[in-house]
Amino acid sequence: MTPSDASPWNSPGTVRQLGKMLFDHNPTLKINPSVIPSIVGWGLRFLANSTYERHKANMISNIRIARLSLEALRSIRQTAHLNYDQTTRGTMRVFPRGGRMTEFVQMCREMKQWGVQFEVLDQNQILEKEPCLGAVIDRYVGAVFFPDDESGDAHKFTNEIARLATELGVQLLLNTNILKIVNGSSSRISHLSTSRGDVSADVYVLSLGSYSPILARPLGISLPIIPVKGYSVTVALNGWKGGPTRPVMDDGYHAMMVPMGDRLRMGGRAEFAGYDTRVDEEEGWRVLDDIMKILPVLRSHIDANAVLNWSGLRAMTPGGPPLVGPTSYANLLLNTGHGPLGWTMACGSAKLISDLITHRQV
Ligand SMILES: Cc1cc2nc3c(=O)[nH]c(=O)nc-3n(C[C@H](O)[C@H](O)[C@H](O)COP(=O)(O)OP(=O)(O)OC[C@H]3O[C@@H](n4cnc5c(N)ncnc54)[C@H](O)[C@@H]3O)c2cc1C
């Protein structure tokens, strides 16, 4: 949960690097040629949002929802016990020599005006926080530490929230496929047609991630969202305590390692591959390899045959901020398009949506 990551992917500097990222021998960004025709329009809007002014405005929107989210999460934690392998020790982004640390610190100064706290660390301070980086410390020119960031297991968190909601009387219809959102008139939704029959409600919130545009289109709502695939790899640490004590991101490899109880999760990569969610094990190995370069000792503590590979889709809008709010249908709201920050923004988006539902007559 990283408000520090609020900068959308189309910062002017990143857009200049896109070509390099695509043609790198170990690319962190990939585009499947077959999806190019379906993403051209989105891509042009992505580029249009990469000016300094647009990018900054989008970053500020993201920070606002992300900070509201942390506030909402902390208030839930005050009244309910949640166990999701959380850490509340901040996150650290380490910068290799010749990287973009100066430019990044400048952006952090701008983010600080909107409440994102940060500290610049030298090599000694990096090692004080994360001794596990000792073997590779000469790779780094410095780091930025974000004390307010948090982390955890998003799947466990979701189950915990489902438990709390159920205890409060919420009924979850799991394994139920929504086939169609049916509009009774041009201004109201009448019901959902689902694999278990029709379901009707006073208010509907469209929150289907990357699949949202597919169900919105027949209603005449065009959502500028495309799926961008990412990978995560999780390994059991079997009691080993020599790894990072908080999430550490290597800005050169674009790879993140996150401690989660007795496991370490690593994530990265961005692939434009449509709705293909197949797990490419090779890609998972590449994520793991990048982390081994930062934490070589990990190799002797994990069982390479017991690695959990996962892939998922980020529902990306061209600007970065999610689509949270009303539609032209009085009883249909949007809560989707959270891209790479869906968990970071989850509680804040939910708060905005629930305020909209309870404070206005929808
Ligand atoms: C590798 C990777 C790493 C990430 N790391 C982070 C991170 O560190 N921090 C962070 O904040 N975010 C992260 N994200 C982003 C985050 O996972 C997403 O933004 C978030 O999952 C979005 O949540 P969502 O509920 O909107 O959509 P989703 O999680 O995509 O959920 C949508 C749901 O709708 C269901 N659905 C779709 N169509 C239908 C239908 N017709 N009927 C019924 N159900 C349907 C799907 O099955 C799915 O369960 C990461 C994403 C990836 C891929």
TrEMBL record:
Keyword Oxidoreductase annotated: yes
InterPro entries per record: FAD-dep_OxRdtase, FAD/NAD-bd_sf
Top-level taxonomic group: Bacteria
UniProt domain FAD dependent oxidoreductase: residue ranges: 56-356
SUPFAM superfamilies reported in the protein's UniProt record: FAD-linked reductases, C-terminal domain, FAD/NAD(P)-binding domain
Listed Pfam families: DAO (PF01266)
Keyword Iron-sulfur applies: no
Entry keyword set: Oxidoreductase
Family: Belongs to the DadA oxidoreductase family.
Name of the protein in its database record: D-amino acid dehydrogenase
Lineage of producing organism: Bacteria, Pseudomonadati, Pseudomonadota, Alphaproteobacteria, Hyphomicrobiales
Name of the coding gene: dadA_2
